[in-house]
Task: structure prediction
Amino acid sequence: MNRILAFLMVALVWACQKPQKGPIPLEELTISQILQAYQNGDFSAEELTQAYLDRIQAWDSLTHSISFIHPEALAQAKAMDEEFSKTGKLRPLHGIPLIVKDNINTIGLPTTAGSLALADFYPGADAFIIQKLKDAGAIILAKSNMAEWAFSPMHSESSTEGTTRNPYHLDHVPAGSSGGTGAAVAANFGTIGLGTDTGNSIRGPSSHNALVGFRTTLGLVSREGIVPLYLRNDVVGPMCRTVEDAARVLQVIAGTDPKDPITANSQGKIPVDYLQSLQKDGLKGARIGVFRTLSEANPDPEISALFEQSIADLKSLGAVVIDSVGVENFDSLRRNQWCPVFKQDLERFLADYVKRDTIKTIEDVIRIGTTSDYARSGLESFRESQLPENMEQDCGDPFTDLKRIAFREAIEKVMDSLQLDALIYPSWNHPPALIERFQEDYKGDNSQVIAPHTGQPAFTVPMGFTAKGLPAGLQFLGKMWSEPTLIRLSYAYEQGTNHRKPPVLKK
Result:
């Protein structure tokens, strides 16, 4: 009896001393840290997913960045835990909670593009890249708010969720159109995020929210199952808190897709492992050109000072900086590059995916209506827009459109002649605007000027903060298919400067 009593007392003492799990430290958690935590048994995917859901519930009322929570998110996480328990193996993105922009088809969630017209559209299949991310183990946590129909680079206002606010300063914009993903990932509502970029919409919100944003070579990643703006320009890509996380996402989503023919151009151009480019000394001996044609275009003094500091930092990290670089006939080559094909691209999407008699045309969308004055004027302008007579020649992709090819060749010719690895300029020359003045104070958006038209990759990485605490981004422009080089450069800059810091949310 005494023995039993002694055993029970020891067991009770042991139970009392057994360490209890505390809350998961969500702020700035990376993919590699999470995978290591799963290996160590520190927490499970289900526990991590619940922690993110709790954080969204507690804080998203401030930012309005999340449109829809996936009702099966916890079930997905539990399935990942059960798989790991059985196999002892982790997939590349095993149990990693992902926030998806609300123009990307995702089973179990509406894909609305922020509009009333698609408010009840539930796609019958995942977009190509969503399936690839699921296969890699990612958990679809939520859809994020966006500028309605992806029209606005300035702000992110939709008919489904309203206006998203910048978590660093709630009365300022997060930029558009992927502002919901930008604000949510910056505020640590999920581990990784997806945005789309027609002219600015990955890099602008990433710059405005102290994130890393990859606009990759047009043709590297499939756009199948994504509501288009101008398909000739559209890309989809990662928006993350670190270069490494963005590279891990790119590792999964890059590749050819028969349903997106432009991806055939990527054959033979995708490395086996993008992660090999994560080199802390990656700037040593790198040749970087300063593109002052953009950086000197009426910059805000604070952004200009941050850019000059970034140049000094690049030099201190071992880069050879060529200051500055000019492109012959740049002003004339950049003109007349846009082609307003939204009406045609949207109506094709409606026919291929939505398949409803009540919504086949842009006129149907206008009839259904919108709560956004900005979206309303955009829809009207696209209804009236006139396309060139020779649309195939004048509205083609960057591999066939002669204007786009000439623009790219002029830039790459200079880069080749100076043996440059990249050109740099601020992602925006001005800080985020006040929401109430989003149109008047829309200034300095450099992301629209080159990459959307030439097809070249352009990455933004945090460059620092203004005195008011508003983020700014440094943009690296590379030659076609130079993602490994841009990952190496941006990673080395990120690791050498450590500008990223999370916002402080207060109610």
Notes: The CA atoms of residues 157 and 163 lie 4 Å apart. Residues 5-18 have pLDDT under 50 and may be disordered.
